[in-house]
């Protein structure tokens, strides 16, 4: 089945979780691109939306969704986002689109974080690359500290002016790798999302949408 149909099915299922008056975090990527029209089509009232990228903000506004700066809210009821990899224990790799720092801030602020993927994203074990967001200051020293890692070719700076890079090492122990990356001062963020952060994963398969709960 066409992956876009699967992405749309997962997005539709997530859109059903949105209720009037919700403070809603909107992720970034091609699956979320199907989420926004599905939410807009529901004609919900009094939504307050926060976007994790300019691309999401622009598409949401085009659809008439009320997007506001995240500085106006100190908590969200629900955040919905895609993922690059989903492991059986619900460790995630995100950041293929380079928005993972803002996405993680939004996910952590949400009472419920729902991930929407097509079945291709479900993997037996996480693997490289793990996206990184690095301070430009002292970049070579930081790259050495997190080796093996490279700056992502052609990637523009993040909305917050940081460098997008990728870690290429094995991810046998995501918790250990996440701790190692978090310990390096020049690492602003990385794309490993812990299961504790993830409440639901909606996996679209040809037979339907599977609902994994943490
Ligand atoms: O960059 C990101 O974190 C995106 O959410 C990514 O993980 C999923 O993008 P996709 O829906 O286009 O595969």
What is the gyration radius calculated from CA atoms? Answer: 17 Å
Helices and strands, in order, run as HEHEHEEEHEEHEEHEEEE
Number of helices: 6
Question: For the residues shown, what is the average pLDDT?
Answer: 97
What's the story with the biggest beta sheet?
A: 6 strands, mixed
Q: Which structural class best describes the helix and strand composition?
A: alpha/beta
Number of strands: 13
Spatial order of strands in the largest sheet: 2-1-3-6-12-13
Taken as a percent bin, the fraction of beta residues is 15-25%
Low-pLDDT regions: none
Binned, the helix content reads 25-40%
Instruction: Tell the overall outline.
Output: globular
- Cα end-to-end separation: 27 Å
What bound compounds does this protein have?
A: D-4-phosphoerythronic acid
Keywords:
214 residues; Ribose5P_isomerase_type_A; binds D-4-phosphoerythronic acid; alpha/beta; 13 strands; globular; 27% helix; ribose-5-phosphate isomerase activity; six-stranded mixed β-sheet; Ribose 5-phosphate isomerase A; 6 helices; four-stranded antiparallel β-sheet
What does this structure look like?
The protein is of the alpha/beta class and 214 residues long. It contains six helices and 13 strands. The protein has helices at 3-15, 32-40, 54-62, 100-109, 139-145, 174-182; strands at residues 23-26, 48-51, 78-81, 85-86, 92-93, 113-118, 130-134, 149-151, 163-167, 187-190, 192-193, 200-205, 208-213. The chain has a six-stranded mixed β-sheet with strand order 2-1-3-6-12-13. The chain has a four-stranded antiparallel β-sheet with strand order 8-9-7-10, with helices on one face. Strand 12 (200-205) and strand 13 (208-213) form a beta hairpin. The chain is globular and about 50 Å long. The mean pLDDT is 97. The site of D-4-phosphoerythronic acid (DER) has 16 residues, from helix 4.
């Amino acid at each position: 089945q066409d992956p876009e149909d699967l992405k749309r099915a997962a997005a539709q299922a997530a859109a059903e979780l949105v209720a009037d008056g919700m403070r809603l975090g909107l992720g970034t990527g091609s699956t979320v691109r199907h989420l926004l029209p599905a939410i807009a089509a529901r004609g919900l009232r009094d939504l307050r939306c926060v976007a994790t990228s300019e691309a999401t903000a622009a598409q949401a506004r085009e659809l008439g969704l009320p997007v506001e700066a995240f500085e106006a809210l100190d908590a969200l009821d629900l955040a919905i986002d895609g993922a690059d990899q989903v492991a059986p224990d619900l460790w995630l790799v995100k950041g293929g689109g380079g928005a993972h720092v803002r996405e993680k801030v939004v996910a952590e602020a949400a009472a419920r974080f729902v991930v929407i993927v097509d079945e291709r994203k479900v993997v037996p074990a996480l693997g490289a690359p793990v996206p990184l967001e690095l301070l430009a200051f002292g970049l070579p020293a930081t790259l050495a500290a997190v080796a093996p890692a490279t700056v992502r070719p052609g990637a523009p700076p993040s909305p917050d002016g940081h460098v997008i890079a990728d870690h290429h090492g094995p991810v046998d122990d995501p918790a250990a790798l996440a701790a190692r990356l978090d310990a390096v001062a020049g690492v602003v963020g990385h794309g490993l999302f812990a299961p504790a952060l993830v409440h639901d994963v909606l996996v679209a398969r040809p037979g339907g949408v599977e609902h994994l709960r943490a």
